[in-house]
Amino acid sequence: ALSDRLSGIFESIRGKGRLTDADIASTAREIRRALLEADVALPVVRTFISRIEERCKGAEVSKALNPAQQIVKVVNEELIAILGGETRRLNYAKQPPTVIMLAGLQGAGKTTLAGKLAKWLKGDGHSPLLVAADLQRPNAVNQLQVLAERAGVAAYAPEPGSGVGDPVKVATDSIAEAKQRGHDIVIVDTAGRLGIDEEMMQQARDIRDAVNPDEVLFVIDAMVGQDAVNTAEAFRDGVGVTGVVLSKLDGDARGGAALSVRHVTGRPILFASTGEKLEDFDVFHPDRMSSRILGMGDMLTLIEQAEAVFEEKQKEEYTEKLLKGEDFTLEDFLDQMQAIRKMGPIGNLLKMMPGMGQMKQQIDSIDDKQIDRTTAIIRSMTPAERRDSSLINGSRRLRIANGSGVTVSEVNQLLARFKEAQKMMRQMGGAMGIPTGKATKS
Ligand code: GDP
Ligand code: MG
Question: Where does the SRP54-type proteins GTP-binding domain lie (predicted)?
Fold first, then answer.
């Protein structure tokens, strides 16, 4: 399975203290192969791998995570993005009933899903009505009625032998019925064929136009892989799909459909079906699916904890320093820069830092390259220089410039920026009621 492959790949880099570009390239190559073997659509694989490579190469040197953990973190975040990011909730109509129409090929799991969804909604306090608008197969109506009974919800179907064979009329009538009987949700099950055909598309469109659904959910058999994703596109264009449901995720699905469908169709995955029983069903959470695919929920928890603990520790250390009357040093400055970069695009940062208005100009002038240069310069200083920048005279500036491959004027600029930041930190300490640093001469 895909998760076994991926765990194996991460296992092979787990012990490394540092990752070279070659390590990153070979890891990316292996992940690519694993995805292709899992039947993930090629454009999805391409996007995914290039994002991983880009992010791993430009990766900040994290003090909280080892290289293997950093790669897992990046892969996890990109998997979540490919699966849709946020959990997408059902859209409910402002004016009940909410109408949910199910579409998909025969055997995809629509009727089963209708029962599962109805039971789940009932558990959530709703009163759903299940509508049998699949009149194609002789026992489809009966199958839906049995499911409705097991789910403990009402069903709407043509009377047996009534001669009503028009699914559009059944669907239309069901809405009136729901209003009359006070059902706040209507789930319309429709007919599928073994392949896409124009007659079926037309029928689906007619039902759609008759019931004006709030959601058209395309049910996709996760075991079918790439074919299913193409069908999803056809339904999206032919009927208008608002969301996707993955069924049969319990089968030995290679993961291809699950990973491709969101990216290829641009439609979110709302639910996942994982067995034949009515309970085998849940809201689809991209983050949980990702950790399932990675097969390393524990590792991901560890990563989160390591990062949280590290950030907390850094904050505490700094407050403690201020409390002890110690000064803001070049080491702190470097930590701050790296923390800034870790927080993502600089522009967003400002929104996240209320009261940091006066730093705006300074922050705007920081880009990744500059942070790299700053890092190099500060690393070329001796520990004593980092603690007390007033030591850094002309000849030391030249030595540092040579050591970090920059010009003396760049070293001067950095020191000037540092002094600005130091001044600000001292003011902040003062504002917090903390005695300001022992103002070194710098
Ligand atoms: P429809 O033709 O789209 O309405 O598909 P059905 O709901 O009739 O399902 C076709 C078959 O797949 C039935 O035998 C179901 O029991 C089975 N099935 C549906 N969903 C799942 C699932 O999530 N897991 C498994 N293992 N079987 C499923
Ligand atoms: Mg069916």
Answer: 268-281
pLDDT tens track for 201-239 = 999 999 999 999 999 999 999 887 777 788 889 999 999
Question: Which residue among 130, 134, 141, 247 is best mutated to probe the pocket of ligand 1, counting the most ligand atoms within 8 A of its Cβ?
Answer: 247
Rounded to the nearest angstrom, the distance between the alpha carbon of 273 and the centre of ligand 1 is 9
pLDDT of residue 209: 96
- The DSSP H or E segment spanning 389 is none
Measured CA to CA, the distance from residue 280 to residue 274 in angstroms comes to 5
Give me the phi and psi of 186, to 5 degrees please: -120, 125
Residue type, 170: V
Computed over its alpha carbons, how large is the radius of gyration of the chain? 29
From 280, 207, 198, select the one nearest 246 (Cα to Cα): 280
Where do the domains of the chain lie? 1-86+289-323, 98-284, 326-431
Given the candidates 1.20.1250.20, 3.40.50.2300, 3.40.50.1220, 3.40.50.300, the CATH classification of the domain at 98-284 is 3.40.50.300
**What interface predicted TM-score (ipTM) does this complex get?**
0.99
What's the CATH superfamily of 326-431?
Signal recognition particle, SRP54 subunit, M-domain (1.10.260.30)
Residue 213 is predicted with a pLDDT of 97
Locus of tokens 């001469």? 441
DSSP 180-232: HHT-SEEEEEE---SS--HHHHHHHHHHHHHH--SEEEEEEETTTTHHHHHHH
pLDDT digits (tens, 9 = 90+) for 186-207: 999 998 888 888 888 999 999 9
Instruction: Return d(Cα 77, Cα 66) in angstroms, integer.
Output: 17
The dotted CATH code for 1-86+289-323 is 1.20.120.140
Is 338 annotated in some ligand binding site? no
Length of the chain: 442
Most confident of 270-274, 313-317, 324-328: 270-274
Q: Among 271, 276, 278, 284, which is best to mutate for testing ligand 1, by the most ligand atoms less than 8 A from CB?
A: 276
CA distance 396 to 408: 10
Handedness of CA 255, 259, 265, 267 (dihedral sign): positive
Question: Chain-centre distance of CA 273, in angstroms?
Answer: 20
Contact 182, 153 (CB under 8 A): no
pLDDT classification of 23: cutoffs 50, 70, 90: confident
Q: Is the CB of 192 under 6 A from ligand 1?
A: yes
Beta strand 215-221 pairing with 98-103: parallel
